[in-house]
Amino acid sequence: MYGDTKHEFVKTSNVKRFEQGVLRLEQRGAPESTLMVVGGNVGLGKSGTGQWFAAQQGYPYVRLKPEAKPGWLLGDVCAAMAMHAAAKLEQRFKDIARTMVKRRVGLVVDEVEHGLANAGATLEMVRALGDDTEQPIILIGRGHVKSSIQSIDAVWSRVSAVVDFEQLTPEDLALLAKAHGLVADPRVATAMCSKVEGSLRLTMNLLKRLRATAERARSAVITAEMVEATDVH
User: Fold this and answer.
1) Residue 44: per-residue pLDDT
2) Which of 10, 85, 115, 129 could crosslink 123 through cysteines, CB 3.0-4.6 Å?
3) Whether 48 and 107 share a structural domain
């Protein structure tokens, strides 16, 4: 998760779990088992982590639209890879697969719950890309996405790693505060964690407002009283 400067990416416990999942994916035995599933409730940083990872690796990152169709997916992947999108779906698929292999890049697909319509046809297309390229593909979705994907046998059989994003810990809050130029001792970090109920989205709201308060006070140290008095919505 990014600190205040947008240049420092903070590796929270969720990010570390994500990286461990990627390692399991890279060390898979069956080459066609190219998929990693990332799930969790909203506001925990799944999308931000996926975008950061894609940027680090040079992978295309796409976000599925509601009731996504295979053609839409492939068109978005072409755009993310700065490729011409062929009119025919078969040719579009071949062009993407060939380019992924040539560039040695995988793919990050977010909001995959939108790909479950039409008996999971869009996710079947993603699975086919993995089969053809043997490149890593990361599927990110909301908490229920794992059980939904399990119902699509051909897709679930290609999954090598599953990562669950959980609520942030006080240690995560302390790291994020530090990245925002703030100092939070363990007691304050625990108070912050309780205030935001483990949500990264609410944490970012809290830290921005706490920093403004700290600047007015001309002190980087934040207190439990400051946390209690700060609105996160």
Assistant:
1) 96
2) 115
3) yes
Q: Cα Rg for the chain, rounded, in angstroms?
A: 20
Last residue of a domain, one of 117, 136, 164: 164
Residue bearing tokens 């942030």: 168
Contact at 8 Å (CB) between 75 and 26? no
Considering the domain architecture, whether residues 158 and 63 belong to the same structural domain is answered as yes
Residue 138 CB: number of other CB atoms within 10 A?
Answer: 28
pLDDT above 90 covers what percent of the chain?
A: 91
CATH of the domain at 151: 3.40.50.300
Q: Which of 100, 162, 88 is nearest to 129 (CA)?
A: 100
The answer to whether residue 102 sits within a structural domain is yes
Question: Rounded to the nearest 5 degrees, what angle is found at the Cα of 213, between the Cα atoms of 209 and 217?
Answer: 165
Six-digit token pair at 35? 């998929």
**Helix, strand, coil percentages, rounded to 5, for the chain:** 55, 10, 35
